[in-house]
């Protein structure tokens, strides 16, 4: 059986739908509980009630409305892999079943412990509550929390968001766009580009409706893919998670398949009807395809090339993030150090006093050697907009890390601030020190800013403990700023900010707990996280991004090549005899195909301009928009070069296709064309 392009177009959507559905459901499961109909968020009000009053109010709502209310709490020791779900236990509700049988986890990377809502006394009651119920249950939950004195907001979750469809598509728009574009063009070239098939049916007296129904029978390719793939997927899910949330995944895949099928179906119907309306005599004689097909095929290459450029930049950035701090040495360098996760919104973060308290806590911990400072900042060199990375550290950092000066001696913290320039650097020390004094050290006393020591480092890499933002962990081009007393040189607001971003690191878990207990701020920290675990979590996310980026680049390249072949084939079929006549008269290849080569050059130039513009927007520019600390920004040059290389390779393949099809036209003497 001959596989038509249209059948290929119908076979791709179910495969893509499963990938998107699976990926989206994994994201939903790791962020919360699958299936919640609404989220109600409670923040502290002026007269909030006790935790027990909150529990009683929620349990009352659950019994009255027959709903389940859940509060997801991360495990303080391993918040990225373990968590507890506090649930109400109304009779015959989902919560009662979970307390008896356990909550299902779709993703194997997350382990969930189910506990009754009554243990809320052990946790901060502010935060998000997942509601499993109808609109009345959502409103009743809001009213119950408001009656206890909390400020409440809520969000209804659409069905597509509950089952992961939204999350799955949002992260893979490039992949979806490339494959959808390819499927649409396959449908158009398989119908308008092959009108003889429709003309023969018309010759036998078929109506337009009958021809359309016969054409739509090619949709069986998608059904065949589903029939063959369902047992395989079922077996894989059984091994992966014991078929947990299998029905939810099936619903998500079905919704995605329907959405992806719409443009394929629409282009197939439109192409079939246009092919049916073409003159029968011309179609039977082989006057194919029409000029519209050739134009559409060439025009479709424009978004395909733009998608390829974007995919190369995204893949390069993902690889840069994956390599920024995920090596085995990263975990060894982290040792026993831990970071505190400041409780996320809603908190009174808009008040200066809140951050001052957090900063005073951080300064006290640093002063008592329970914590150390390792903050990466972007520093102006004092020359225009040029910036360089800098690592701001304290004596605690230098006690754990062996940092060497140019003469081989170990760098230690003296009694004044010191600035150490990286080896083989041409930075001017004077302007750089002035920039540091005027900005990063602006809150330090004047004598501290005026008396700055330092020197030059030996060739080495500085390690910066990874925080909750995407930044490099190892620097061979960073300035080292040693601050003996961070609490005196920086404001409490600045130290509080650095604590929340993971730049203030505690030496071990015991030291962190020892500092938290007498501070009265235990409710402000949702987790005490090993720095090695943070690195591992970043590695997992980066690996996922690399897989998605690689698939997008591969699919965009294939689609771009297929579109180039289709456009060339359409042109050859339409003008085959005329081209043969030119070849037969001795005209050279460059003259015969001047129009196609000019089109190829124009497409390459346009895509190159887009790649250059993307590089220009993404590169570190000293304005703070793209930081030199960001590995994605640092990889902009590499991404631009790789994008240009991919475009050149694709263009070269298109030129080869031109040459090969020209030889075929000469060999067949332009049969089936005019």
From TrEMBL:
It comes from the Bacteria. The keyword Transmembrane applies. Keywords: Membrane, Transmembrane, Transmembrane helix. The chain crosses the membrane at residues 175-193, 221-240, 246-270, 545-568, 589-616, 636-660. The keyword Membrane applies. This is ABC transporter permease. It comes from Curtobacterium pusillum.
């Amino acid at each position: 059986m001959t596989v038509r392009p249209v059948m290929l177009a119908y076979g791709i959507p179910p495969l893509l739908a499963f990938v998107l559905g699976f990926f989206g459901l994994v994201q939903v499961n790791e962020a919360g509980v699958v299936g919640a109909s609404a989220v109600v968020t409670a923040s502290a009000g002026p007269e909030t009630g006790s935790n027990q009053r909150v529990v009683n109010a929620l349990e009352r709502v659950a019994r009255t409305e027959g709903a389940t209310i859940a509060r997801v709490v991360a495990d303080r020791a391993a918040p990225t892999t373990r968590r507890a779900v506090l649930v109400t236990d109304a009779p015959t509700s989902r919560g009662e079943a979970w307390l008896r049988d356990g909550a299902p986890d779709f993703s194997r990377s997350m382990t969930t412990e189910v506990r009754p809502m009554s243990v809320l006394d052990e946790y901060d009651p502010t935060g998000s509550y997942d509601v499993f119920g109808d609109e009345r249950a959502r409103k009743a939950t809001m009213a119950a929390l408001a009656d206890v004195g909390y400020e409440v907001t809520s969000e209804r979750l659409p069905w597509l968001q509950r089952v992961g469809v939204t999350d799955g598509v949002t992260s893979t728009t490039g992949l979806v766009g490339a494959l959808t574009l390819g499927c649409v063009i396959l449908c158009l070239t398989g119908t308008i580009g092959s009108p003889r098939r429709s003309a023969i049916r018309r010759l036998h007296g078929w109506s337009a409706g009958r021809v359309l129904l016969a054409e739509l029978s090619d949709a069986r390719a998608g059904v065949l893919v589903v029939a063959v793939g369902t047992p395989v997927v079922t077996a894989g899910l059984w091994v992966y998670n014991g078929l947990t949330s299998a029905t939810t995944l099936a619903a998500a895949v079905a919704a995605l398949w329907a959405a992806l099928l719409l443009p394929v179906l629409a282009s197939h119907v439109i192409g079939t009807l246009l092919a049916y309306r073409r003159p029968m005599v011309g179609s039977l004689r082989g006057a194919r395809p029409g000029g519209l097909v050739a134009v559409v095929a060439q025009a479709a290459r424009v978004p395909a090339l733009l998608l390829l450029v974007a995919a190369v930049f995204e893949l390069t950035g993902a690889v840069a993030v994956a390599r920024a701090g995920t090596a085995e040495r990263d975990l060894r360098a982290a040792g026993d150090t831990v970071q505190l996760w400041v409780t996320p919104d809603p908190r009174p973060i808009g008040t200066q006093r809140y951050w001052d308290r957090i900063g005073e806590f951080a300064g006290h911990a640093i002063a008592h050697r329970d914590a150390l400072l390792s903050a990466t900042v972007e520093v102006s060199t004092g020359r225009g907009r040029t910036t360089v990375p800098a690592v701001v550290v304290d004596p605690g950092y230098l006690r754990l890390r062996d940092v060497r000066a140019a003469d081989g001696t170990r760098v230690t913290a003296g009694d004044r601030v010191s600035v150490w320039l990286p080896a083989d650097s041409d930075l001017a020390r004077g302007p750089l020190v002035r920039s540091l004094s005027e900005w990063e050290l602006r809150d330090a006393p004047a004598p501290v800013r005026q008396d700055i020591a330092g020197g030059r480092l030996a060739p080495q890499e500085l390690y910066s403990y990874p925080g909750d933002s995407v930044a490099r962990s190892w620097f061979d081009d960073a300035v080292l700023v040693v601050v003996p007393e961070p609490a005196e040189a920086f404001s409490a607001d600045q130290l509080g900010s650095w604590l929340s971003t993971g730049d203030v690191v505690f030496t071990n878990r015991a030291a962190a707990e020892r500092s938290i207990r007498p501070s009265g701020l235990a409710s402000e920290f949702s987790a005490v996280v090993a720095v090695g675990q943070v690195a591992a979590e970043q590695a997992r996310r980066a690996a996922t991004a690399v897989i998605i980026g690689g698939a997008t680049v591969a699919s965009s390249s294939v689609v771009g090549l297929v579109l180039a072949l289709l456009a060339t084939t359409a042109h050859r079929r339409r003008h085959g005899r005329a081209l043969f006549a030119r070849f037969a008269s001795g005209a050279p290849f460059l003259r015969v195909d001047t129009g196609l080569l000019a089109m190829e050059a124009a497409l390459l130039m346009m895509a190159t301009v887009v790649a250059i513009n993307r590089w220009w927007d993404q590169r570190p520019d000293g304005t703070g928009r793209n930081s030199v600390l960001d590995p994605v920004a640092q990889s902009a040059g590499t991404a631009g070069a790789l994008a240009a290389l991919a475009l050149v390779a694709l263009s070269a393949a298109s030129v080869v296709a031109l040459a090969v099809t020209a030889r075929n036209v000469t060999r067949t003497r332009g049969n089936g064309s005019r």
